[in-house]
## 1
Amino acid sequence: MDTLELQENEVVWQRPTFVEDHRVRMRLGAKGRLVIPAAIREALGMTENDMLDLVVKDGELRIATMRERLRRAQQRAKRYIPAGVSLADELSAERREAAKYE
């Protein structure tokens, strides 16, 4: 099982800090295909074979990488976890304790 904790020297992708208006008008292709322009893929850190999350919200199609969704979820969860607490360590301890009684 993968843990969400970062190692000290691990590099984390972060959204570019520059702000540009990446706006393009295009036609939907055959069978509903849509090509995301290279500049937009680069700005969002998208690479070939990335898993994407698509959602319709307020009448708009929103596309994000799963990496970005995970980053946002971790950021939201971090507000509720006290500093210095490892949820992975707590879960392991709980499982070890439960295993004593099996």
## 2
Amino acid sequence: MATILDGKKIADMRMEILKKEIEASSLHPRLATVIVGTDPASQMYIRMKHRACGQVGIGSVGMELAGDATTDQVLHAVAQLNDDTDINGILIQLPLPKQVDFERVIAAVHPKKDVDGFHPFNLGLLFSARPRFVPCTPQGIMTLLAEYRIALAGARAVVIGRSIEVGHPMSALLTNADATVTLCHSKTKNLADEIRQGDILVSAIGKAHFITRDMVKHGAVVIDVGINQLNGKLVGDVDFAAVTNIASAITPVPGGVGPMTIAALMENTYRAAGLGTCETVW
């Protein structure tokens, strides 16, 4: 039976440590969130992030734009937050409506306030093995693996999904940790065969119970990033009940990767408060 990688327990521990660090510091971190529209799931995630800020002593403010906001209107909001010296971190709640240019908005966030780690400059640092701000979900996963002392050097890692939120940065972090990484996606041939090679499997494909028992190598460590609805229940990409019997370790959904993502966001915001906001991105 697999070890359950309890993200909630580890996140709670990390948040308590961070709270004490903030209390002992002279810093007063503040996070600003920007949400466009009233999508219920996005609204819930925003509330969770503001609640987490309160738990660790990070100030937070929210900017809410109408669902029909234009790219220019979102860029104006970002510019205001970039200029606000009291704001250390800026989070753009995703997904953005289709009429908003995602790439322009992400690139407009000052790299030193980019606590999501999506700015091209910060992604470049990550892929140069000199990370500063790392996207929160991959960073949270790496923290979880470290807390459970899961060896990565020399391991075969398979990452499913190539988004900038998870897949690409996850593959970079695992490579930087000396794993041998295969990044799979919708055009990958013989996907099941590739997945079976993984000593470490990270799934961010967004399909309920897509990963079945026969796809998983015996003794693999399985990280489930998926959040899907199935028969009225929240489930991951992995058939948890079946895969638990063959994996050596596995994250549950919920309670696995999600809490680690929020803890990583808080840690990034605290780090941003220590950087200052001079014009030079370094």
